[in-house]
Amino acid sequence: MLPFSLPWKNKDRTPVDKSPQALIPRITSFWLLIINVAVLTPLYDELTPWTLAICAICFVWRIGIFLGKVAKPPRLLVSILAMASAATLLLITGQLGTLSALINLLILGYALKYIEMRQRRDVKTIILVGYFLVALAFIDNQSILNTLLLAVVTIINTGGLVSLYQGKTRPLDPLLGSASITLLSLPLAGLLFLVLPRFSPLWMVPDTDSATTGLSDSVRPGDISNLTRSAELAFRVTFQGPVPSNDRLYWRALVMDSYDGKEWRQNPRVKALQNNAPNIPNQRPRPMGGSYGYQVIAEPSGTHWLFSLDLGYSESRGVVNMSNSRLFALRRIEQQFGYDVTSYPNAIRDPMLSALERHTNLTLPPDINPRARAYGQQLREAFPDPAQRMQAVMERFAQEPFYYTLKPPRIGSNQVDDFLFDNRSGFCVHYASAMVVVARASGLPARMVNGYQGGEYNAAAGYMSVYQYMAHAWVEVWIPSEGWVTFDPTAMVAPERVLDGFDAVFKPEDSYLLDNPLSSLRLKNWPLLNELRMQLASLDYYWSVWVLGFNANKQRQLFRELLGQASTERIGLFMLGGIICVLMLIAWYTGLLSLPKRRDKLQRKYHKLLHALKRLGVNLNISDGPRTVAHKVSRFNPNWQESITSLANEFEQLEFNPALTDRQRKEMRKHCLQQIERLLILVTLQRTTPTLMGELPLKQGK
Amino acid sequence: MTVSTRTAHSGFWQRWLARRLPAAREHTLTHKGIFILPTGFGVFWLLLVLLLFLFGTNYQNNLVIGLAMLMASIFNTCLIFGYRNLAGLTIKGHWPAQVYAGETLAMPIQLESSHASWQVGLNYPKNRIAEITRITDSAVEVLVPVRHTQRGRMNPGRVRISSCYPMGLCRAWSHLDMAMSPLVFAKPEKPDDKRSYMDFHGNDDVNGGNQLNGVDEFSGLRDYIRGESLKQVAWKQLAQGRGMLTKQFEQPQGEAIWLVLPGADTELEKRLSALSYLVEYFSRDQHLFGLELNGEQVAPGADESHRLACQEAIALYGENA
After folding, report:
1. B residues 44-83 near A, CB within 8 Å?
2. Do A186 and B70 touch (CB under 8 A)?
3. DSSP string of A443-460?
4. Which of A447, A666, B5, B268 is a plausible cystine mate for B11, CB 3.0–4.6 Å?
5. 3-class SS at A699?
6. Among residues A55, A58, A428, A672, which one is catalytic?
């Protein structure tokens, strides 16, 4: 019909929503391969073998799609696979635990969505889920290294989005874009992290179960396998005042007062109290007397046990002060948990003992350990004073040939008898167990306490580390008018164990490093490397205190230090100031702060003159060059001809003559400015008093 | 420039826009003309930030809370980047090529940025988006389509310049009135009865319809100019190896045909389409013709400017009344 038609005429029928922008750019496809590996690697531990297998298949398939070897899988296949996976996961949820099952489900969804994606929208979904998976990886491992790794993963994940919108095509461009955006966002993120209010958990969430501890809630002296040789950190302490000497560091965790001849365990009554702890949060009053304070950061242990010295009292959130002078966590400790304790070393623990408690702490299994019981009876007659009686037991450990060993010989059914009278060698549990039995047999209420003894002090950072291998057992005896008194029979056998720490007695290689060939504690023997180890430990400590342990208390403390007082207005102002600073930083980076350059003075004056001339009625256009202006002005008022022509000449020379020297240029500028000023005055006069101007002879400046 | 108002609400919006961003042939985007709001994806992003914050709170995990804060901060950074991407962009409108009703009009819009701007899309309301990946300080021109054109002076509305750079979390956009109302010619349609559109001013017998087809007299050959219609190419000469030549036709002067709008037997647009067709037809043949539309006359002529004058008169028919 017509000889011409527009080239896009035929495309007109393409619906708007199916425009090419909905497709996934190739660079994004490439980048998604990297993202997939990056996001799933930190979660490797959580994956069940067949989740891993499905992820691997999906990844290989995606590579195939990227290379153009295979087509996208049909929707039906993906749906069937997804449903089958979900069903299987549901079946094995019991074995995995709820949280682990949820993580696996999310990962499966992630992997299946990954092969199925077709549009930009799908890429966005995958990247959002990626962020959530990064968050899940933080639940299990919060070390500095893992955090750095996950920070890199986050940047890579963000790169996927950048690749969708930046339109650059070199493979690494998305990474650079994402890294710069992330780095620019860090200051504001840090600020928000500091000032945003912190809440306690809003509802119960499923726990992970992956922690180890050197303690257990039952101790069997006959069984040496439960002796922990772990070099892992148990908890860290910062003392507010001076650090107590090593022999005062008895970190109480568990009280074992039931003995059946084979096993020490916690009294069922105490267990019931623990289970009921959320309902009766405070089971004893704050003690009186001299005290010292410290903060403990417990490592994840999967238990509720907390650690305190002497008679500890804590007002931290989530901590219960149990009746048997212990602290108890309301939630299982699955992540680092920090709490404040005040200890009262001189306070009397339980000045009165109820009949029920007295009975519990005097009970011995009948018919076993006859020799030990006889020995107890004997002591009772020899030493009517309870304190002296216990002193006699302690001296017996010191005087008779007892040995401290981590590899004691086997003992029979009369555990205490065998140890006390035949073998005379064992470790803390044997000594504590024997002493409690003897004390009870002599008529004194006694119990075994489990916890940790000692600690490694890091002077540089000012905190103490307590490791799992420092697990210890000792004895508390109730003496009328003194309450519970601590005795450590092991200290009589191996005093250096208590005075100088565990390492003074044993070579680490023989004990806690036996099972840990790669532990950094091996470096203790080389001073320089040990220094390095301590530095790294300090870094880790600060990380724990200020990042992982940053809570509402720390926040208040920070505000007090920064602002003098933590009033709402000051915090508000601080936030506002901080946010403005951060926004300015980003704005500066993106180039928003570069102000428009001020025009050159000569140019400004020249334009001012043109403006004035125009108002006077000279017919000037914006596009007129200096010569045209001179011409028009001369016609308008011939008197000004010489002035304006010389100005135009010099103005043009300044603009277009590169041969001018700097000095000439300077002089010419000056002259130009003078001319302009004069003309401006003339123009103003002409406008205000036109009649006068007509009669005045023109003065020509040189 | 008046802006079409569809509803009362959009009317208010348009008036507000007209005050804030008055029509101009050239715009440079500043904070005055740039709007930013989160996209749907951006809203999901913020929801995820909230979810992660709750997640971190419930697990008392500061690192998860930190991740949430980082994502919130990234959102903020994207706002600034998105704004920066459009700020300093200079948009200049050019006159489009001629277009007939029903065809897609391509508005040439020239873009230039004081820095690099990425992934900018331009579109007129209810039209497809023309995308440019990168704009630098050297000007680029994009053709922004306007579909479903109608005869007459057309107001394409405000062109929307938008970008989701850098991460698709928020969209920065501006609505600019390019102060251009291009003319849309009537759609040329061959009439069934040509003669009713022609007035021979009494010389019916001399210049009858049969002569019309043969009015062209071959007057010679000249060098082919790129872009000329292939219909005029002298193929025989090309085959002889004499290169590409164009056949030239002339018709005797003085035999002007007058095109007129006949009485209302069919609907107006149909008749105007027929006139448009005839204008094209005679212009191609370089036949001398004039146009008379209800008293308004375009004096006879045969060149390109005459064709445009006639088409303009047809296009504007009824509009100035």
Report:
1. 44-45, 48, 51-52, 54-74, 76-78, 80-81, 83
2. yes
3. T--EEEEEEEE--EEETT
4. B5
5. coil
6. A428
CA-CA distance, B199 to B261, in Å (whole number)? 10
| Longest CA–CA separation in chain B, Å | 101
Write the single-letter amino acid at A161: L
B173-203 core/surface letters (b: 16 or more CB in 10 A; e: else)? bbbbbbebebbbbbbbbebeeeebbbbbeee
**Å between A42 CA and nearest CA of chain B:** 15
Low-confidence ranges of chain B (pLDDT < 70): 1-9, 200-219, 226-228, 249-255, 320-321
Chain B: closest CA distance from residue A130 (Å): 11
| C-alpha torsion angle, residues A332, A338, A343, A349 (rounded to 10) | -10
Integer Cα distance of A308 and B147 in angstroms: 79
* A window 174-193, beta carbon within 8 A of B: 177, 181-182, 184-190, 192-193
* Cross-chain Cβ contact A124/B168 below 8 Å: yes
Give A24's contacts (C-beta < 8 A, 6+ positions apart).
A117, A118, A119, A120, A122, A123, A164
A472 catalytic? Reply is yes
pLDDT at A330 over 70: yes
- Tell me how far apart the alpha carbons of residues A110 and A36 are, in angstroms, rounded to a whole number: 9
Q: Which residue of A has its CA nearest to B47?
A: A128
Contacts of residue B181, Cβ cutoff 8 Å, sequence gap at least 6 = B1, B153, B154, B155, B156
In this complex, do A548 and B56 lie within 8 Å of one another by their Cβ atoms? no
pLDDT (average), residues A321-349: 87
Cα(A196)–Cα(A194) distance, integer angstroms: 6
Q: For A10-21, how does the pLDDT look when each residue is reduced to its tens digit (9 = 90+)?
A: 333 333 334 445
Whether residue A593 lies within 8 A of chain B, CB to CB, comes out as no
Q: How confident is the model at residue A223 (pLDDT cuts 50, 70, 90)?
A: low
* Distances, alpha carbon A354 to alpha carbons A357, A358, A359, B172, in Å: 5, 6, 9, 75
- CA separation (Å) from A559 to A583, B99, B248, B255? 22, 68, 90, 97
Say what the pLDDT of residue A208 is: 55
Split at pLDDT 50, 70, 90, the class of A147 is: very high
Per-residue confidence (pLDDT) for residue A219, from 0 to 100:
79
Choose among A248, A435, A227: nearest CA to A343: A248
Of A472, A503, A540, A672, the catalytic one is: A472
What ipTM score was computed for the predicted complex, to two decimals?
0.77
Query: Which of residues 175 through 194 in chain B touch A, CB cutoff 8 A?
Result: 188, 190
* pLDDT tens-digit series, residues B125-146: 888 889 888 888 888 999 999 9
Tell me, rounded to whole angstroms, the distance of Cα B1 from its chain centroid. Answer: 17
Specify the pTM: 0.69
Chain B residue with the nearest C-alpha to that of A17: B128
Q: Residue for token digits 């303690």?
A: A215
For A699, other C-beta atoms within 10 Å of its C-beta total 8
Phi, psi of B153 (to 5 degrees): -75, 125
Q: Residue A415's closest CA among A221, A199, A627? A: A221
Interatomic CA distance for residues A617 and A389, integer angstroms: 121
SS3 B160: strand
Q: Is A662 a catalytic residue?
A: no
Radius of gyration (Cα) for chain A, nearest Å? Answer: 41
Please give the interface size between A and B, counted as residue pairs whose CB atoms are below 8 Å apart: 165
Q: How many C-beta atoms lie closer than 10 Å to residue A459's C-beta?
A: 9
CA distance to A351, A420, B175, per residue, from B117 (Å): 79, 85, 17
Establish if A550 touches chain B: CB-CB under 8 angstroms.
yes
In this predicted structure, which of A208-222, A421-435, A643-657, B57-71 has the lowest mean pLDDT?
A208-222
